[in-house]
Protein 1
Amino acid sequence: MLYKFSLAAFLLALSASGQAAPLLIATGSLGGTTDKSGLGALLENGVDANNVLGGTGSGLAWAGGNTFLALPDRGPNAAAWNTGLDNTTSYIARFQTMTLGLSQSVSGSNYSYTLTPTLNATTLLYSASPLNYGAATPAINTADRFYFSGRSDNFSGSGSTNPVNARLDPEGIRVANDGKSVFISDEYGPYVYQFNRATGERMATFNLPSALTANNLAATGAAEIGGNTSGRVANKGMEGLAITPDGKTLIGFMQSPLIQDGGDGGRANRVVTIDIATGKTRQFVYDNYLADTRKSYNSSEILAINEHEFLVLERDGKGKGDGSKAVVKRIYKIDLNGATEIGALNNGNGISGESALLQYAVNKTLFLDLKAALNAAGVGDANIPAKLEGMAFGEDILEGLTRYHTLYVANDNDFLPGTAGDNLFYVFKFTDDDLGKTSGFVNQQVSAVPEPGSLALLAGALGLLGLRGRRKQAPAS
């Protein structure tokens, strides 16, 4: 759809925020009620089918050109059917391959844009070796395909970072530079996994620092929170994921501070970097607190500007879908160069505790006030999506001789279009100057590959798919 707004209102919003900022140029919605998975059976709640389309903005990754991968989370759990499982279902974890077609029109010196999202393929995620299930094993399992699902009881009795656990709550996704695999972060573990982009098979598990592990598991978030004194807060695990433009390092972002660091509502959040080749990890501190609101907010996404500078999306849970009005939706810029690696402190044992960690927090500067930008475009606070969670750069655009970078932001509508609205995608244009003082913007270069559906078909016919035999276990940090 063509997105129009008041320039005067936008300039007024910029003046109020005291910053230069990217400009919203288009928004689009992904229609339809079903995806391309072909799964038709009803889920346990009896409401949503296995192929229900929704939540596509939990994670968003650029795959080159106008191709993007969109990630729904653990599936529909708004309909009450079993509170002992937090109403989660056997929704199979997946990612969606889509085209976000951005078209430019020119009239004199005025440029306008239209964004057309199109769903192309759905890829289901599985392990080639058995997984731990609860009472419901996916009916589509085969002798060598064991699918991940959103049911909260799909775990063994061991700690949360056991990679054999079948429960998966995907929240962040990035594409490898060769275009052949994807990295996905998860709230349940927290985990970071690597999957074959064409088939959906898990290829690698990256071991995360033990400080993130919740040792006592339960099928409800409340029981897990009450049963642990350390580790990630239930349903607030690794929410964001970035990959550096050189394709060598992953950066995971916890949604809220760990239990021992203040827990949900605390300030001292953790950023974890992972060397993809060696599995070596490092930890840094991010302060969730905002001085102007005197509150701390959760972090939803992280995106690499270059090898050491990143954008971080902070938000409240208010807005459309929550029945309230949005207050904070902001993107900040951080730099890990020169920051203290907290995992190496205290003779390598690391440190914990909010006050101990905050002294090492990285500096952050405001890059974009999303709420102000959407307000300026005529979107009221009650209609701003409560869960703006996905963030990715796209292709550059030219307006005459001026080059702009593009930033795509997506929402998680919790599979509830009637309440939380459509699956939306917002496109912003920005220049290097909008980033302020920086080492420079470097976009990831992803090699073009056939779309997942066509590549999988080719592999099955010719036996040419070489990724399947490369599963590996990354060494411990």
Protein 2
Amino acid sequence: MIPTITAFEQSPDRGKGLARDMRVRWALEEVGQPYEVRLVSFSAMKEPAHRALHPFGQIPTYEEGDLVLFESGAIVFHIAERQAGLMPDDANARARAITWMFAALNTVEPPILELVTAKILEGDKPWAGERLPLVKDRIRHRLDDLSVRLGDADWLDGAFSAGDLMMVHALLRLRPSGILDEYPNLAAYVARGEARPAFRRAFGAQLAVFTGKPSIG
């Protein structure tokens, strides 16, 4: 059965691959699973029909027969658990890959999202100038540890896994800030993720929504 995912009809990232449906697209491309996309407008996201799929009125959702999922991490985990390509065969290695998925979502991504909020939603506040350096310091604290752990390895724990997929996508939001460039091994790590054919296909598909042109490759 071909699953259907939802994506922004007008992506707020303007085709930069930062929207969370990108994670799901990437996971599906990594495992070679065909999928369909239903584009949803901002107004439709808050309507009862979409809230029946996602109680918080957000993107993405995943539908496969009677199964309906929301939250990008849960969707990627579902895909990785059921198809080869994103989880190691060894049980302990699988557990570590899952741990890295949670680390990306719960430890690394929150301060990065806080930076986005501080710049876009709170940038005009009188205290914004004082808060921004604090937020950046919290990000650097996480990246210091992540950089040490990665070292000169290509991926976080042996072969590429769903943990790397989630971590790379979380780190992508840092590129405009310049903070990622302060950590050459992490910048190279993200670049390796972006160079994967599955990422390029997923990125092209998401970019096509913004540009209105068919994706290539």
Protein 3
Amino acid sequence: MRIGIDGLLLWGHYSGVERSIARMVTTLAQLDQTNRYTIHVPRDCEAEELAAAGVEVRRAPFRGAQKLTRILWQQGVFPGVLACEGVDLLFAPGYVLPLRWRGPSVLFVYDIIAITRPDLASRANALHYGALLPRSVRRATRVAVPTEHVRRQVIERCDARPEQVAVVPLGVSPHFRRVEDPARQEEVRRRYRLPERFVLTLGNLEPKKNLPRVLEAYEILRREGIRHGLVIAGQPAWGARVLRENLARCAWRADIVLPGYVADADLPVLYSMADALVFPSLTEGFGLPPLEAMACGTPVVVADVPPFDETLGDAAARVAPEDAWAIATGIRQVLEDPLLAGRLREAGRERAALFTWERCASLLAKLFDSAVTAHG
């Protein structure tokens, strides 16, 4: 079977969705020796890892940053390209389908924040995904989602049939393991100008990550005598202006580091050096960073939101994301209670080991077969 893949989101620095797409596709190609995989990416996508895994790479005639061109090409030209290539199944791992595609399809939807919380999405994404995501869900033969929470939302808000939507959890890459090498740690510390001891928060600098409250919580901790630095890692995204304004007013600004985008190879070292990861997102579909940190033996403090019931269970400290005092208390308990931190480290490693890309790829492969059979 020839499987065509919409990889048009793959360009520039990868955030969680892009990293997930790349890992899904490479793992599928490595494990599946029967089907043939062809991925279509922007012309400036660095696709060496995909090609090395045996994926045939086709480059679309635009750069990844040309968003409007990408959408128009995806919806207008891409279906014809797929038909000319004789594709038997389309895998669309980036929220939307080319709606004119008439063959079997599997759509991956990580969350429906653009529909349930448009205030936490950029205006462009709220308009784009708000319009096309529900139609893509209804058009798709099968829909994959990372958690049962997102499955319920997709069925309720996008008018999907229950038998159409399957839970396919994401995975933690094998290189997320604790790094104790002092030389490697010192190299990463110098490169990103990290403090000696710090609390880490990670993700695109956007409103759903709840960073202003992280800053409030950090100020509370400093007033209470905690001396750790704060590292806010991630690339600036929409809404980062509020964070910059809050930083400018913070009395402990000198102890807060914004290293920007952290290379994937450096993330295990960053996690390993942090005394805690704080991840109090206002909403999530899955949340990979907490599991990655857990795999590296780092205690995790997360928001008490539904998806984390499934992904993290009781292996993370849970806090009310709307309450800066609650966030500060959760962090302080992890920093000051060695027994609690030790329990979270051990439970976290065990929890993270349950999520592999091999399992994700295996479930997707079964969904591909189901989609072809269902389409007839």
Protein 4
Amino acid sequence: MADNVPPQADAIFEPVTQKWVRGAFAEWYRRYGLGITGYPLTEQAIDPDTGLPTQYFQRVALEEVAGQIRLRLAGQEALVRQQELIQQRAEVQRLAADLAQARTQLAATTQLAAVEASRGTSAASGNLEAQLRQREEELAEAQLHLAKMERDLDACSRRVAELESQLSQQTRVVAAQQAEIARLRAQLQQGGGAPGGQVTRPAITDIVDQLMKHPTKSYSRRQLKAITHLCIHHSAVAGTVPVEHVAQYHVQDQGWPGIGYHFYVEPNGVIYQTQRLETISWHVSHNNDYSVGICVAGDFTYAPPPQSQIDTAAHLVAWLMQELSVPEQKILGHKEFPNNDTSCPGETWLKRMTWKNLLLDSVRAQMGRSARPLDHYVLFWQKVDSWAQEDWRAAERYIGRFRPTAGFSLDDAQQARVVTIVGGDAGVSGQAEQALRAAGAKVERIAGVDFADTKRILDGMADRGQRFLTLT
């Protein structure tokens, strides 16, 4: 599809590769994310061999069949090319044999012409020379074509091996995600969530096993009780630079065993875990043994991060403080650690706008929110003989993304700081909503024109990392 085609309402534009992802491809892209697909490399187009809409990404090739997206059969492509190569090699052998025969005939005719020049055999010799030149040209062309096909096959074989490796890795990731979803569903059936008074765990995407690692070097390990400090970094490059590129730089250019950071916070609100907490990665010289490295993506030399990114990082910091028993005074920027002559995490960390204070203010707010027994409650309706099954299914991805407490109890919801009501007032009534507000809760209702529309809204919020539509 050409770059100048107007974007659809559900299209996604990736500025990193300057490509659009549209329609069913966009839905698949949102569902599985960069960790599965990588960035789009081409626009969507009709493949001339299969006649199917096809789009290539960094990690996968996708095709659309009857509105459904599936992985393109890269192995089949390689097999077809191998068969074509076999046929081409046979053609080259045939031409070579014909050429050898023509050369033999030419030699015999030339000898005969020398003896019997007066009998007109020189004409036959001339004809054979012309045939020989034609055959030589055909053979040269066939050999060039064969060399190109061999190069194409080699590239295709490497691509197949790469895709097989990635597919194996993706299968493990999906299996882990499915196990996590199953755990969350079981927890939700029991009205689960963070225990009263605790900071809820933020949504964290684990990519530890997907990032580049050194082939021979490895980091040392530690016990969690050894961790006493949290170290804040900035990436010192544009926030759009993928975390995979940062890992590649640390390994290939710096010669480190793996990426130096334990967490990577992107501007869009996505938190990646990039090393296990038990790993002593290299992020703050002379102080790695007891610290956790948190990188906020972007260059904050002249301006601090946007407040939304600060709040996301603060949620992570507050949760780690709680889980690791780290006090506020031990949250330091890279430059604040001893024996580290650096400007990281940017000049605005301690000067000018002082985004350290912005971060700590947001951390305190996160800790203060836990004063109520519940932070965020998703409320569904329930009656004697029925309950909100469709609304529940519509909210599954949202709940899996943000992990709020979810249930059917108005009394429990009144103990929460924020309540999200799923569905119209035919379920949870307007009177119940007023009671929640009277109890001091912030309330937001998510209700589409039908169940499918409600699911679309909630799935979109989950994909964007947007917990609330109107609340802060």
